[in-house]
């Protein structure tokens, strides 16, 4: 390879990694500002009810709605991603997600338009789920299908880093606004600014992605043979076992994330009466542990295997889940920070290697559909009902056992990893 070719390849890799990171950061920012608002703002503005707990449960229900839209988004975008290509599909998913987020920023409240407000909010939340359902799989393939030999897990970790980056941007902005504005202004109009600001980030993501070319592996596979007419049908008829196992393998990361973020934020600011800004600051510090462990997990997975790293992360999650409830129940900032940091650190090991693990389960011309479908169905098992179940567990049995939801999800993930390792 000539020097100029080597430099050109290096710049191509940088563009690909930047596009996979920025795109998923934008998508996860959009997704997470909703999760934050669902814990802090939406219960009283969009879901009037007889008690704060009922309001919070209704708001968490709207949060869960997107998880049920994500498999549908995976099927739709996976179909076109496997038949048409990765680039065009990723651009479309980003526009859908960003458009729904922007419209939430303009939505009138229940006090202004009655029950139309929560209905429209739920429809827009469903649209967010459709967009994110097509986003992650395409971003992961964009990275790993451009990776040099021996670098697939490290390339595959870049879209995973979009999660902590998006979280920091979302919660950081809510923290800044909560500090600068009075509570009255924050609830009246300040909460809308993160949703409206999404438009700028979406334009940035589109600008980066429109400069990309198709991945070499997909282009070569498409030239060799035509893609399946209906990729999802082929997936379910020929690769159902891998899809189910991959779905189980993803459950732990979603359970950890939504218990340690959305649920913990709602519980900490309501039941424990911790100041909103203080709790957001705790979570912003804890999320840095997740970013660091994603990088470490990518390096470790290339040195060993993604399956091994994921399995160790699940084993650690089972133990952490047992300690989570009692430490949250202390109500003290230091124990809460430590357990949130431990949870999100472990999440890096059950999330970071998924970008390399899931695509490897499926042939090239089914990868977009297969990886997206497994990832987003795993979101239903691990994340969709996590804040709701955790809130119910507290009411029925107290805070002590709420972390067992994460332990159970990790055990499910271990079962999926065991199945794929046996088949491999």
Automatic annotation (TrEMBL):
Record keywords, A-Z: Cell membrane, Membrane, Transmembrane, Transmembrane helix, Transport
InterPro entries for this protein: MFS_dom (IPR020846), MFS_sugar_transport-like (IPR005828), MFS_trans_sf (IPR036259)
Gene3D superfamilies: MFS general substrate transporter like domains
Ranges annotated as spanning the membrane: 21-46, 58-77, 89-107, 113-134, 155-177, 189-208, 229-260, 280-302, 309-328, 334-361, 373-393, 399-419
GO molecular function: transmembrane transporter activity
Superkingdom of the organism of origin: Bacteria
Localization in the cell: Cell membrane
Membrane topology per record: Multi-pass membrane protein
Residue span(s) of domain Major facilitator superfamily (MFS) profile: 16-424
Name of the protein in question: MFS transporter
GO cellular component, one term: plasma membrane
Xref: PROSITE patterns: MFS
Upper classification of the organism: Bacteria, Pseudomonadati, Pseudomonadota, Alphaproteobacteria, Sphingomonadales
